[in-house]
Amino acid sequence: MKKNIFSIILPCALSAGLLVWLFVTIDYKGIWFAIKDSDARYMTAAGTVFFLINFLIIWRWRILMKAVGLKARPLTSIWWFFIGLFWNLAPISTIGSDFIKGMGLSKETGHRPKVFASIVLDRLSGFAGIVILAAGAFMFGHHIIKNKIVILAIVMMSLISAVIVVVLFSHRIFSFACRAFANWPKVKEGLMRLHYDIVLLKGKQKRGWEAIFISIGAQIILAFEFYLTAKGMHQHISLVYFIMFSPIVCVVTSLPSIGGLGFREISWVYLLPLVGVSKEMAGGLSLINSAFTIITGLLGGLLYVSTLSSGRVQYPQTDGSLQQSSS
Questions:
Q1: What is the predicted pLDDT for the residue at 318?
Q2: Distance CA 326, CA 110 (A)
Q3: Which of 65, 58, 61 has its CA nearest to residue 82?
Q4: What are the backbone dihedrals phi and psi of residue 183, each rounded to the nearest 5 degrees, phi first?
Q5: Which of 7, 27, 35, 198 is most deeply packed, by most CB within 10 A?
Q6: What are phi and psi of 151, to 5 degrees?
Q7: Sign of the CA dihedral running 92, 95, 97, 102
Q8: Spatial separation of the C-alpha atoms in residues 154 and 133, rounded to whole Å
C-alpha cells in the first residue's frame, strides 16, 4: 500500500514542484502575456495538427499488430488508444497507461501476449524514430548549437535504444535477464511469451521499418506543430530547431509526472533560450502544448466513462480466469 501511494505521490510532487520552480524563477506575468497575445488562428492550426498526429501513431500501432499476428478492429484500437492518452494524465506513468490500454484491448481480442508485444514494439519504434531524427538533425545543425547537454542527451538516447533492442531480440540475453524472476514463475512465463511474440518481427523487418518511418514522420509533424505555436506567439524560429529539440523533450516528458507536466516546461525553458527565445515565451509555448495534451487526454476520458457506462470495462479477474482468457 505504501509503495502504491508513493508511486502516485511522486509524479504529482514532481510536476507540482517543477511548475512552482518555473513560476518562481520566471516572471509568470510575462508568460501570461505571451499566451494572451497569441494568434488564435495559429493556435487552432497547431491544436488540430497535435490532435491528428495521434491517428498517425494509431496507424503505426496497427502495422505492428499485423506484424505479430494480432487481429483487432480499427475502431477498437482507436478507442483504447485514446483511453490510454487519458491515463497518461494520471500519476501512473506512460507504462501504467500502456498496461491499462493493453488490458482493455486484451479483453476485446483474447490475445494478451500479442497485444502487449504490439505495445512494446510500438514504443520501441517510436523511440527509434526519436533517436534517428534527433541524431540526423544534430548532424546537420551541430554547428548552430554547441551545447554539451544536448549532445549528451542524444548520445544517451542512442545507447539506451541500442541496449533495449539487443536485450529484447536476443533470446540468450533475454532469458538470462528473466532469471531475476525465478521466484515468480508466472511473471517469468509471461515475459518469455512476450519475448517470443516480439521476435516474430525478425522475419518482418519491412513492417518494423514502416513503423520507424512513421515515427520519424510523426516527430517532424510534431516539430511543425511547435513551430506553428511559436508563430502564433509572434516568434520567428527556424523549424530545424524544433526538429532538434522536440525529440529530446518527448523523452524527458516520459519521466514520472502528470502527462509530462513540469518536465515539458522545464525542457523548453532550457532549450529555446539557446536560440534566442526568452524564457517567458518558452514557458508560454510549453504550457500551450500541455493544454493540447490535457484536452486530448480528456477526450479519452470521455471514451473511458462511456466504456464504463456500457459495461465494456470489467472488474479485475482472478488468476485462473486471467490465464484462461490469455490462452
A1: 38
A2: 6
A3: 58
A4: -80, -5
A5: 198
A6: -60, -45
A7: negative
A8: 10
Return d(Cα 101, Cα 96) in angstroms, integer: 9
pLDDT at 53: 95
d(CA 178, CA 267): 35
Of the candidates 98, 107, 101, the one whose C-alpha atom is nearest the C-alpha of residue 321 is 107
Q: What are phi and psi of 236, to 5 degrees?
A: -105, 90
Distances (CA, A) of 269 to 18, 249, 286, 291, 326: 12, 11, 8, 16, 46
Place of cell 490469455: 326
| pLDDT at res. 4 | 56
Q: Tell me the CA distances in angstroms from 146 to 110, 133, 238, one per residue in order.
A: 51, 18, 17
Amino acid at 277: V
DSSP 27: -
Top pLDDT among 199 and 265 is at 265
Q: Which of 116, 108, 36, 110 is nearest to 78 (CA)?
A: 108
Q: Are 236 and 246 in contact (CB under 8 A)?
A: no
Q: How many CB atoms lie within 10 A of CB 139?
A: 9
Kindly report the length of the chain: 327
- Is residue 121 within 8 A of residue 207, CB to CB? The reply is no
The C-alpha cell 482472478 sits at 318
Radius of gyration of the chain (CA): 21
